[in-house]
Amino acid sequence: MAKIKPFRGIRPPKELVERVESRPYDVLDSDEARAEAGSNEMSLYHIIKPEIDFEPGTSEYDPRVYERAKENFARFQQNGWLVKDPKEMYYIYAQTMGEKTQYGLVVGAYSGDYTSGLIKKLELTRRDKEEDRMKHVRITNANIEPVFFAYPDNDVLDALIKRYAAGVPEYDFIAPIDGFRHQLWIISDERDIATITAEFAKMPALYIADGHHRSAAAALVGAERANRNPAHKGNEEYNYFMAVCFQASQLTVLDYNRVLKDLNGLTSQEFLARIKENFDIEDMGTEIYKPARLHEFSLYLDGHWFRLTALPGTYDDSDPIGVLDVDISSRLILQDILCLGDLRSSQRIDFVGGLRGLGELKRRVDNGEMRAALALFPVSMKQIMDIADSGKIMPPKATWFEPKLRSGLVIHSLD
Question: Closest by alpha carbon to 161, among 249, 87, 86, 102?
Fold first, then answer.
């Protein structure tokens, strides 16, 4: 059963939160982080993307960059921009996008559950990215940014969260760039803390929605610390890492679409003819067409949108992976026709999160940057959890969760 604990969060004073908080480290590049931080010395980018403190072009993997992260984290605390809470607590973090609000519990997740598989992975990780995050966790001795978990719906936790959400939050702001509302409440009541811990202990699994590399890195660093400690007992703080856990039914999974640099030497007519071997094709004209159901795709090519419907026999609804549209399109179009190889490293394809809309696909094809675009119907949370429960791994670039977690609202120290 899932094991969690409260922790003493390190976080900004209420009046400074909007100066400290930031987007996650992996959704923007160094130049964008440098521009967003500007002259704001309190920006968390100085800790999570400290290459901005060096001359432009400095590698984010430069040893000096990791050392600067440590120095800046210490400076933020010395200056009172980040302050450690007086006791172990849980936190409620809410995100509002449009008319929808989702509520997450900020907890210390047990790294042993990651190792044993109780924290279920949805996608493969890359060792270089794991190593980068491990270096950052080691040198700062903290989980500066949370990972994003889903948990099975729970009525007891839902009622508790609603009770707190009816009160005044500690933080409440509209973030720049994304324009979403972010709120945070503190749970310090011992009875409520005990209830949360007990309810999670009943859960058979937790699911990583976003933050696979951070989860892997945190678990590996925890294991390193345990191996170096001859008095290791298993309840030390380094055995836990920070996660924001949302009820699965609240989460919004958006489409994750593809833009293609070439047609593998085929003409448009030859490409469509190859697609027709496995799909029914209908020309929908020049107006943007969005897939409306499972096994339906939208192809943008030569100024026209085509509806592609996978033919019976090209997928397996009884297979958690074989039923996925991302698997169907990868097998039958991206691999069989375009021969793209490993989608995680191919330079002939790029991926566009659904929040940007299909207009972004059209723009990138119309301006000549890309040759064609493929839009997919989004994966459901049930599909995601079924795959994780089956022990299988999602195909690359299958899910896009929105809103993204803001960083800097709470930090977890390994001590």
Answer: 102
Instruction: Determine the Cα–Cα distance for residues 389 and 294; give it in Å rounded to an integer.
Output: 21
pTM, to two decimals: 0.88
Q: What is the pLDDT of residues 101-159, one digit of tens each?
A: 999 999 999 999 999 999 998 877 777 888 999 999 999 999 999 999 999 999 999 99
Q: Please tell me the distance from the alpha carbon of residue 293 to that of residue 310, in angstroms, as a whole number.
A: 11
Selection from 397, 255, 279 nearest residue 336 by Cα:
279
- 45-73 pLDDT, tens digit per residue, is 999 999 999 999 999 999 999 999 999 99
In sequence order, the 6+-apart residues with CB closer than 8 A to the CB of 384 are 122, 150, 207, 209, 253, 394, 399
Q: Which residue, 398, 400, 332, is CA-closest to 123? A: 398
Ramachandran category for residue 186: left, alpha or beta (phi over 0 → left; psi -120 to 50 → alpha):
beta
- Per the rule left: phi > 0, alpha: psi between -120 and 50, beta: everything else, 141 is left
Closest-CA residue to 247 (of 335, 320, 148): 148
**Residue 286 per-residue DSSP state:** S
C-alpha span between 143 and 133 (Å, rounded): 10
3-class SS of residue 21: coil
Neighbours of 185 (CB within 10 A): 22
Q: How many residues does the chain have?
A: 415
* CA 241/CA 143 separation, integer angstroms: 6
Q: What are phi and psi of 84, to 5 degrees?
A: -80, 130
| Nearest Cα residue to 186 out of 174, 168, 198 | 168
DSSP for residue 363: H
Instruction: Give the SS3 label for residue 128.
Output: helix
